[in-house]
Amino acid sequence: MTRKENFLKGFVKENPIFVFLLGMCPALAVTASFETSLGMGILVIFVLTMSNIVISSVRNFIPYEVRTPAYIVIIATFVTIVRMLTAAYAFDLYLSLGVFIPLIVVNCLILGRAEAFASKNSVLDSAIDGFGMGLGFTFALVVIGIFREFLGTGGIMLGVYLPFFGPNEISISLDLIINLFNPDFVSEEYALNFFVVAPGAFIALGMILAFMQGKKAKRVRLEIEESKRLIIKKKNAALAKKATLAKEAS
Amino acid sequence: MQANLKKALVLFFIAVISGLSIWLVNQATEEQIAMNERNRELDFYRDILTVEDSYELDTLEVDLGDGLTEVIVFEKDNPSNEFGLVYKGAQKNSYGDITILVGIKDDAILSVVISGSTNTPNFVKRVEKNNLGTFEGMSVSAVTYDDKTGASFTYGSVSEVVMLATQAYTERGNE
Fold first, then answer.
1. B6–A contact, CB cutoff 8 A
2. Shortest distance, CA A105 to any CA of chain B (angstroms)
3. What gap in Å lies between CA A70 and CA A64, rounded to an integer?
4. Which pLDDT does position B151 carry in this prediction?
5. 8 A C-beta contact, residue A85 and residue B25
6. Per DSSP, which regions of chain A are E strands?
7. What is the dihedral of CA A128, A133, A134, A137, to 10 degrees?
8. Less CB within 10 Å around the terminal CB: N or C of chain A?
9. In angstroms, rounded to a whole number, what is the distance separating the alpha carbons of residues A59 and A62?
10. Which string of b and e fits A163-192 if b means at least 16 CB within 10 Å?
């Protein structure tokens, strides 16, 4: 596997949420809005990349029998650090994510990458793996977050929790375009509030997974049809060759 | 024996490095976190006592025991300009910890706010939505509690703090 493939695999092919169904707790709990999803994603990228780097660096010193507690201590250290940094520099995000920041410690994705990849590969490859997988995880959270917030509130709010979206809150909705044709339209009135509450998270994730699986099934079906076509083509070619040989022999 | 010693040493070494890293980050962020928490608390006081944004706030806190603290809120650098009293109650119940603020002015409850909680969020939301508003405007000498919701640990903590706060306020007036 090249480094580019290693980096890109987490986005679609081995996406932690959409393919491996890892880290489902934050995927369901903090995706009520785009900003909380992105915030959690950024924290996971930091923890995953840093823990992969450290675990890969010390992999030869850690005895096999105590590797799991050692990995957990390393991961917990980065989670504690990220928790303090969030409380200091993104306090609104810290309050919003609440208990789900410390719960990053038990995210299967992070321990899974430590065990499956970082403990067996070089520091650079582990860093790329951690960063790529973290980005893939963030991508999935953001997709769910946008889906839920848009359907649940009628728009996307920016600048509420994350400091880098500026001091003022910005609302993005389709109102501006629709109001050109219907000035009285307010998308919030048509929002399906169900999607921002807990059961809505399951339904939203189910719908996205069904869409992904549908696309995958279509691709597999096309591949099977293509291979069948190739087999028939080869068979016909062989039969034609056989007929020619028989004709020549007679 | 030597192998076990090696395992113990490795774990000890990792724990020491982890502890040092956390200590360093704590040193770097401690002040900023304390400032954020202080600002959040002052925002709560500002909302409860409906103080204009143009005023900078300061507080004087008196520990009254039973987890109750009396907070006198006044203008920064001008202690004579008092905005009111807020009682801060920290309670423990079967759902976890909860901090409740009770704002009192002119013998009436201004509002009751849950400022921090590890209780089940849905119970907290329910109590915030259905019960906290009913205290607003009540006279400190005639506070009534919702007996039906008394079964909720969250509401139990709220009513306990409101009771302690109104008692403390009454005793303060009598002194």
1. yes
2. 14
3. 10
4. 67
5. yes
6. 155-158, 170-173
7. 160
8. C
9. 6
10. eeeeeeeeeebebeeeeeeeeeeebeeebe
> Are B18 and A76 inside 8 Å of each other by CB?
yes
Model-level pTM?
A: 0.82
Asked if B69 and B50 count as a contact pair (C-beta separation under 8 A), the reply is no
Long-range contacts of B142-145 (CB under 8 A, 24+ apart): B143/B109
Rounded to whole angstroms, what are the CA distances from A81 to A108, A225, B27, B167? Answer: 19, 52, 11, 43
Helix or strand (DSSP H, E) at B70? strand B68-75
Tokens of A146: 């946008």
Decide if the complex's ipTM is over 0.85: no
B:101-120 residues touching chain A, CB 8 A cutoff: 118
For residue B26, which residues of chain A lie inside 8 Å, CB to CB? 84
The tokens for A23 are 């880290």
For residue B128, pLDDT over 60 is answered with yes
Question: CA A79, CA B134: separation in Å to the nearest integer?
Answer: 41
Confidence band for B166, pLDDT divided at 50, 70 and 90? very high
Q: Which of B14, B25, B28 sits opposite A70 (nearest CB)?
A: B14
What's phi and psi for A104, nearest 5 deg? Answer: -60, -30
Could you give the count of Cα atoms lying within 13 Å of B145 in the half-sphere of its Cβ?
Answer: 15
Size of interface A-B (CB pairs under 8 A): 52
Q: Where are the domains of chain A?
A: 3-165, 200-249
Q: How many other C-beta atoms are found inside a 10 Å radius of the C-beta of residue B166?
A: 22
Tell the burial category of B79 from Cβ atoms under 10 Å away from its Cβ (0-12, 13-18, 19+).
Answer: exposed
Q: What whole-number percentage of chain A has pLDDT above 90?
A: 55
Q: Which of B6, B14, B25 sits opposite A74 (nearest CB)?
A: B14
Distance CA A238, CA A236 (A): 5
CA dihedral B168, B156, A194, A148 (to 10 degrees): 60
Interface test with chain A among B1, B7, B114, by most A beta carbons within 10 Å: B7
**What is the predicted pLDDT for the residue at B150?**
66
Which residue would you say has higher pLDDT here, A229 or B141?
A229
